[in-house]
Amino acid sequence: MSTSKKEYKRITVKTLVDMKANGEKISMLTAYDYTMAKIVDSAGIDVILVGDSASNVMAGHETTLPITLDQMIYHASSVIRAAERSLVVVDLPFGSYQSDPKEALRSAIRIMKESGAHSVKLEGGKEIKDSIKRILNAGIPVMGHLGLTPQSIYKFGTYTVRAKEEEEAQRLIDDAKMLEKVGCFAIVLEKIPAALAKEVSESVSIPIIGIGAGNDVDGQVLVLHDMLGMTHEFHPRFLRRYLNLYDDMSNAISQYVDDVKSRDFPNEEEQY
Ligand code: KIV
Questions:
Q1: Which residue's CA lies nearest to atom 2 of ligand 1?
Q2: Which residues of the chain have pLDDT under 50?
Q3: Residue 237 maps to a domain
């Protein structure tokens, strides 16, 4: 398969900023456990996001709100043990940073110290500026997240495209510039018009990683279980499915059940 992947020993936050400056696109996927992270890392992904989407795909919750800091640290530790090349970013979960900057810093420190992660991601703009600054002052790299921010789903009321109106679009541009100014190393833009994402990407020098934000940004992120087709009830327009693992796994498991019931498994060669 053709590839424009460059060889990097280890991706750092500086590598990502250089990639944007050199016009090289950044690839990012989620992972939440050792085995999947090992595959993702060795396939050449640049950034692994231990997303709070673990709340949905790993734990079966309807939203990202229930996952705890301890649970995020557990997932992050498993991923870190597998990541030899990629930069690992970990979401600060809902309720672990919104109260005040000190709480935000304590949570970020726990993630870095207890999991060995390389950086953290927080959802929001100017309302969490002081928390971001405090975390950055402690030497912890921060990735921002604007647009559709799923931790605020009950405020939005729906998962539809954000910032279609002028006022929200301008606020998003201002927030992106602020995140760059305080020192974030990258920003995720989720589910916003492609033209707006392009404008944001052109207004800042840090990488913009899009999900449902079009192609004129500096990189793309998807939830691993969605792009592998392990989930099948979720089909937003931005999602490209590279496999249909739900059906493939389901067929394999049915076949195993049949083989056990029919006494076909194990055969002579599969026993001692
Ligand atoms: O938690 C997550 O998976 C995310 C991505 C959707 C960007 O934040």
A1: 51
A2: 1-2
A3: yes
